[in-house]
Every structure is written in structure tokens, then in C-alpha cells.
Amino acid sequence: MRITLAFPVVEAESERHPERCASCGGRKFHRHLKRERNVRDTRIERVRVVQYQCGACGRVVTVYPEGISRAQQTQRLRMLSVTLYALGLSYDKVSMVLRALGAPLCKSWIWHNVQQAGKRAVEGMRKARKRGRQITVLGADETQMKATGEGITIGFVTDPQSGEIVGMDILAGRDTEEFVRWLQGYAKRHGAKVVVSDDLDSYRLAAEELELGQQVCVAHVRKSVSARLRRIEGHEEDQELIRKAIKALTPRAKRCLRAIHRCYRKYPPPKKGQRESAGYKLRMVTLDILEKWERLTLYQRGHAEKDAFGRREGRVTEVPATNNATENATRASQRSGFAASQSSIGRGGKIRYRQMRGFKAVDSMLKTTALVAVLGGVLAGVSYGQLFA
To answer: Distance between alpha carbon 240 and the CA centroid of its chain, in Å?
Structure first.
């Protein structure tokens, strides 16, 4: 997914006329007043605002040019200030950039813009959550931030096929009981049968308790296996075979892993005061992969409803191999042109988060996280531009 942000168009004047009076429904208007006013923008300094009076009831209606509202700053400037903040700049730095562009804004205005956009993003997320449409496969992941000096865990639930977020919640922890409580409502609301997640054991236990199939994110496992193998000295040939097997994930690769595991079963676990031997490390790496094999390869089989006799009914639902769609939940790209693309969970929020010592309020943290989710182009039912209309 790659979404290029389109900033609002701002015009100096408009020829539009009111279509209908909000009070009496009348359609006849005559021009009442035309005046100029100053605005804050990177390109336009003055605009013409026209007022029309209803011929039936006398109500006055103001018509603003495109991109202009009652506020002194234009929609383009609001969007630019919020985008710069979401991508990691502090309020001071955003103010400095806008001043250099000829449209100075003080920190309090920038803060207000961020809060208003974040509020709309949270509202959009709540509306998407209430729709409760059928989603057979759900993606789940979590990230940790700090607010009011304490660590906060935020959980994201998405439709991994489209990348749309269907829920964002504050979790009490990362234990199985909390994950069951968190995922149970979503599974019931959307009729989910499979959850796609990382290889955290709490997801496995929660999926078993909720009677859901689980696809472990292949990208997570490949990354963790590569990291473990880099810490093992020697046995280069077997290490390379393991890397190829985890990349292929075929029946032949599974047989290869079993053969390697049998070769290293003779290496015992370390005794007290001893270090793990390289052979024992390889034994545990292959064992972990083999234990996860069915959950690693669910995407190859897909999900199919079964009758009372275990026979497949209807078509098979595709299951993604990775959890990338969920991990994009708070990702905002650092590329030029303000293009949003995919990467790991929370990175967008943490681009913002790393510039500070933590959020001062949980409400502000939720708004900022939801805002960056929209910037990543994955928030269900909300366009980034709609936050500034």
C-alpha cells in the first residue's frame, strides 16, 4: 500500500452560490456583502469572502473560497502543521518550518490543530468499530508507549486483507487472560475464525481458548530465527540449511529441519553455571520452528468452514502469511513527498514518540496514535484529508 497525501486546494475567491437556505429552504439569494480578509497560508495572504441573503427569510449565508473557513489559517496550513508533527517534529520545530515558509503559527495553534485532527481520527475509528462487518481473518498486534510516566500497551485489530483498522484499545498487560478479553469481542462481532499475529505465546493460548485458528507472522519468525543464528558460532552449513528451510516452508523443508534436529538432540541443556553450547542452541532453534510449523503454514491451506463430519464447506478464505497490515497501524513514512507506506507496528507513532519523554496524558496519546494511523492510510472509513475539512 502506498498513499500519496493530497493537500487541500486553497483559492483566493469563489463564484459558488448557496443552493438552499438552512432556515426556510428557499433557493433565491441576492448578494449582501463582499469583503476581503487576511489568512495564514504558505501561498495566499488575502481572500474574498461573499455573503448572500435569503430572499424569503433574510438569513445571511457566508460563502468561503475552497480551503477557507472561519478560522484564520487555511485547511492546507492546518494539514501541513499536523503532518509535520505526526512525522516527528516538535511543536517548536514545526513552528520554525512554517515561519520559514512564510506562514508562522504559534505552538498553541499547532497543538490545537493536532488535537482536533486526532479527535476526528478517534471518532472515525469508533464508527468503523461499530459497523461490525463480517471479517473471517483478523490481524492483531500491540505496541508500548509511555503516558503520565507509566508504560501503556496499545492493541490494534485490523482486517489484514485491506489493512483497515477495526479497533484500537488500551490493554492492561500482555498476558493470555488480557488477550482473551481483548480479542473475544472482536471475534464475536466480526465472526472471525482466524487471527494473524506475531509469535508471542499469549496469542497462541488466547487463540486456543477462543477456538480460533492462528497464523503466525512468517516475517517475525524469519527475523527472530536469523537473529538467533547470528549469535551461534560454527555449524555454518546447518545454519544455512535452517535459513533456507524457514524461507521455503515446504514439506521438504520440514523434513530437512527434522533431520537437523535429530542430529543435535544429543547436545544436553547447560548445567548450572555453564553456557549453552552451539549445538544445543541449534537444537532449540529447530525445535521452536517445528513446534510452530502448523501455525506458520496455515496461509498455505487457508480457512474453510467444516461440517459436523469435518468436511469442507464452501470456498476457502485466504489467510495472509504476514501481519504487515496490522503493523502498519501507526506507520507514517519518512520519505519525501509525504508518502505513506508500510513497515513495522508503532513506528509511525514512535517517530513522534521518540522525540519526547512520553505523553503527558493518555487522551493525547490515543489521539496522536490514531492520527498517525490515518497518516499511514490504514484507518477504516477515514480519509486523511477529511480530518481537516
So the answer is: 34
Amino acid at 49: V
Sign of CA dihedral 262, 266, 269, 273: negative
Q: Are strands 194-197 and 213-216 parallel, antiparallel or unpaired?
A: parallel
Q: Which residues contact 194 (CB under 8 A, 6 or more apart)?
A: 136, 137, 138, 212, 213, 214, 215, 298, 303, 317, 319
C-alpha cell at 131: 459497523
Q: Are strands 3-4 and 339-340 parallel, antiparallel or unpaired?
A: antiparallel
Count of C-beta atoms within a 10 Å radius of residue 167:
21
What are the φ and ψ backbone dihedral angles of 269, each rounded to 5 degrees? -65, 155
Span of 107-111, 339-343, 382-386 with lowest mean pLDDT: 339-343
- CA-closest candidate to residue 387, choices 4, 17, 5, 46: 5
Mean pLDDT of 150-168: 77
Residue 226 vs residues 96, 148, 242, 282, 342: alpha-carbon distances, Å? 43, 36, 9, 12, 22
pLDDT digits (tens, 9 = 90+) for 28-76: 888 888 888 888 988 888 999 998 988 888 888 888 888 888 888 888 8
In angstroms, the CA 348 to CA 368 distance is: 10
Nearest-10 Cα torsion for 260, 223, 317, 212: 80
Cβ neighbours of 219 (radius 10 Å): 15
Between 329 and 386, the more confident residue is: 386
Per residue in 231-277, pLDDT (tens digit) is 988 888 999 999 999 999 999 999 999 999 999 988 998 888 888 89
Gap between the Cα atoms of 280 and 285, Å rounded: 9
Element (H, E) at 143: strand 137-147
Q: Which of 184, 248, 197, 186 is nearest to 222 (CA)?
A: 248
In terms of Cα–Cα distance, which of 271, 327, 365, 317 is closest to 139?
327
What was the pLDDT predicted at 167?
77
Longest dimension (CA), the chain: 94
On the 0-12 / 13-18 / 19+ scale of CB atoms within 10 A, 231 is exposed
The secondary structure of the chain in percent helix, strand, coil, rounded to multiples of 5, reads 40, 20, 40
Cα 44 from Cα 13, distance rounded (Å): 11
Cβ-contact 176, 205 below 8 angstroms? yes
